[in-house]
Design brief:
CATH architecture of the largest domain: 3-Layer(aba) Sandwich
Number of helices: 10
Structural class: alpha/beta
Helix content: 40-55%
Mean pLDDT: 95
Number of domains: 2
Order of helices and strands: EHEHEHHEHEHEHEHEHH
CATH topology of the largest domain: Rossmann fold
Low-confidence stretches: none
């Protein structure tokens, strides 16, 4: 027997309990016959995040991830999608591999994580060597993102940490801030711009920016969901979210 709504794929989506963006973002990109089943990682909403506390708070989220994995597996999803990006960049490529291994070992199914998905997205475009990126994080976490991309073979030209003061404040970053940040990151020395931080909704704005800049602008929620679909043989071309979902 086949699930009547998720007859093509049931995704278990893992994200922080403070995240209000991943669930609607992923649902907006969901093809017919694919369903998303969100499992929340218990996350106290720190109200005064700082450079000193960001990493510790993110690692708490990472430590609580497997409980959310065990919970969502009771609905028997076919595959998992990680809706929290910071921990997937920590400790470079080896750290990302270990994080993925631990989740897959617990779940018994595969998972798409933000770091590896974004690298795959950059390679899908082809010819991308130099990138810039921004995040809602603090400089300590941006350093981890930079390390990951460098180890993955990309030159990071510039990065901007928006330093949002709480986990929920990430979802409050507006279009004007996103535009200003993207323009500051752009330049003739950059082949592509990347946005990380899953509670920052950029799936439509990145597509618009890609059109007016004439180069790839990749939102991590788009990259992660695209990666999950393609890894599972779902190649629907989905309009409105940039070239990644429309062409690759």
């Amino acid at each position: 027997m086949t699930d009547q709504l998720g007859w093509r794929m049931k995704f278990g989506v893992i994200g922080p309990s403070t995240n209000t963006v991943v669930q609607p973002d992923f649902d907006d990109m969901r093809p017919r016959g694919v369903t998303n089943h969100y499992s929340r990682i218990y996350t106290p909403n720190a109200k005064a995040v700082s450079n000193e506390t960001f990493m510790a708070g993110a690692r708490v989220i990472g430590a609580n991830t497997l409980d959310a994995v065990r919970s969502v597996m009771t609905c028997e999803p076919h595959y998992l999608v990680m809706g929290m990006s910071a921990v997937t960049f920590f400790d470079g490529v080896a750290g990302a591999d270990e994080f993925q291994r631990s989740v897959e070992e617990t779940a018994g199914v595969g998972i798409s994580i933000g770091s590896h998905a974004t690298s795959a997205a950059l390679r899908a475009y082809g010819g991308i060597k130099r990138i810039s990126f921004f995040s809602p994080y603090f400089p300590s976490a941006n350093a981890e993102v930079r390390r990951y991309f460098t180890e993955s073979g990309f030159e990071v030209v510039r990065d901007i940490p928006l330093q949002c003061p709480s986990w929920t404040a990430i979802a409050e970053v507006d279009a004007a801030t996103a535009r200003e940040t993207i323009m500051a990151l752009d330049g003739d020395d950059v082949d592509a711009i990347v946005q990380v931080g899953t509670n920052l909704s950029l799936i439509r704005f990145a597509a618009a920016a890609e059109a007016w800049l004439g180069k790839p602008v990749i939102a991590i929620n788009t990259a992660t969901y695209w990666h999950a679909l393609r890894r599972n043989g779902i190649h629907d071309k989905i309009a409105g979210f940039g070239r990644l979902l429309e062409e690759f």
